[in-house]
Amino acid sequence: MASTYVAGGDVEYGRYGNPTWSAFEQALGDLEGGRALAFASGLAAVATVLDLVGHGTKVVAPRHAYNGSVMQLADLESRGRITAELVDVTDTDAVVAACEGASLVWLESPTNPALEVADIPPIVAAAHAAGAYVVVDNTFATPLLQQPLSLEADIVVHSATKFIAGHSDVLLGALVTKDAELFDVLKKRRDMIGAVPGPFETWLALRGLRTLHVRLERAQANAKELVDRLTQHPAVAEVRYPGFGAIVSIVLEGGALAADLLTHKTTVWVHATSLGGVESTFERRRRWKVEPATIPDGLVRMSVGIEDVNDLWDDLAAVLDQLVAERPGS
Ligand SMILES: *Cc1c(COP(=O)(O)O)cnc(C)c1O
Predict the structure, then answer these.
(1) What's the pLDDT tens digit per position in 75-114?
(2) Among 49, 151, 167, 58, CA closest to 109
(3) CA dist., res. 141 & res. 219, Å (int)
(4) 130 C-alpha to ligand 1 centroid (Å)
(5) At the top level of CATH, which class does the domain 212-325 belong to?
């Protein structure tokens, strides 16, 4: 918990390093295949990368990325720092074309909350050919399901708040890279800006990391089972699931009203933002005014937890059945 250290040792002051950060960074770095740096939050890590983008350069980013990341890009653009080109990450040809003249290609895959998947290797090849760096926000997949550095991406971003810490009790972010020069640049910026985590937060995240494989296996199995059942339910117009992970988005037949009813009437599922905890949480994303209008009004993003899948289904089905029974004309 020390903020300062006896002079002359490895670390002099708590903004530059901490043995608990190092233990967490070592573990996450090993999982992603690079060297990690912990940050105060996912968005602190995002801001640290975007701060390095050159004046007047172009950044390519997904139109449906995490809204906090998109807002940072919009803020930089409004102050004349960059131009942001927002793309549909599922349209690889369009993303490849957008790489021309870019200094940074920001990817998030799967995206939050649309669950679109980017084909990372051809995008990385096009970005590198254009002289651009590639960043991948790997929060949804976690290093157990996708390792962007092994696909030659330059930097991985994590909101460790989510699956990595895994218990909805920590705010934490991380950057990982295997490029030694880039690592030094990012470390220097963290030292300078000071968006550093507390030792206790990194300790909790390290403890969470020990069960990541077990939590994710169970949550993913639950998600797949729920996807099967949700797909067959008449109250559900669309199920979005990339085939892996524990986040599922559904669009309800009854739009925003039905979605609000669902999120307010369940008792096992908790109505809350954020995701990746052991407990199942969900929310209608467009309840946030900043969520893009291209996200359907009745879309509910579901973070599937590790509870008994029948408890989860019964809780959902009770409300979904009611939505069908009360539908006009039924
Ligand atoms: C939550 C989230 C972030 C932001 O992380 P915080 O820890 O909340 O600052 C970034 N990217 C994705 C994909 C997220 O889900």
Answers:
(1) 999 999 999 999 999 999 999 999 999 999 999 999 999 9
(2) 151
(3) 12
(4) 28
(5) alpha beta
**Does the annotation count 137 as an active-site position?**
yes
What are the pocket residues of ligand 1 if the criterion is a CB atom closer than 6 Å to any ligand atom? 41-43, 66, 68-69, 108, 112, 137, 139-140, 159, 161-162, 171, 173
pTM as predicted: 0.97
HSE toward the beta carbon, residue 217, CA cutoff 13 A: 4
Share of the chain above pLDDT 70, in %: 99
Where are the strands (E) in the chain, listed by range?
Answer: 35-39, 57-62, 82-87, 102-108, 133-137, 155-159, 173-177, 236-240, 247-252, 270-271, 281-284, 299-303
- Kindly state the percentage of the chain with pLDDT values over 90: 97
Q: How far apart are CA 72 and CA 257, in angstroms?
A: 30
Looking at residue 23, its pLDDT comes to 98
Residue 322 has pLDDT above 90, yes or no: yes
- Distance from the first to the final alpha carbon of the chain: 62
Fold of 19-209: Aspartate Aminotransferase; domain 2 (3.40.640)
Residue nearest to atom 5 of ligand 1 (CA): 42
Residue 89: predicted pLDDT: 97
The whole-angstrom separation of Cα 228 and Cα 30 is 34
Cα–Cα dist 159/170, whole Å: 10
Nearest to 79 by CA among 98, 62, 56: 56
Give 288 Cα–ligand 1 centroid separation in angstroms.
15
Whether 117 has a pLDDT exceeding 90, the answer reads yes
